[in-house]
Amino acid sequence: QVQLVESGRGLVQPGGSLALSCVASGFTLGYSAIGWFRQAPGKEREGVACMSGDTIRTYYADSVKGRFTISRDNAKNTVYLQMNNMKPEDTAVYYCAASPSLGRTGCLLLSGFYNYWGHGTQVTVSS
Hints:
By secondary structure, the protein is mainly beta. The protein has no helices and 11 strands.
């Protein structure tokens, strides 16, 4: 059974940091692109960051470049999102996703390419 389980939800003050993690099971993470997406109330889901299976390619949304870092540990079947210098507009439900369809070398911030999704974890940035 394929599963992606996020953890690290929380409330953080503007300028603060938070780390999310996502544990995958039921498929080979190393052969999949991974992505983090988020959805704020009343807005569409947007891509935040992605990384190819071979870790060579990474892409970030302009809104998070220089502040967020995506990483992965294929041996632990775990992906991470380190979020620094957070802003109130980062408030959203964050989802991790995996795409065997993109293979080991692909990485896209388009949700339609992702086959597996976690249930999401709430991140709130507020003073």
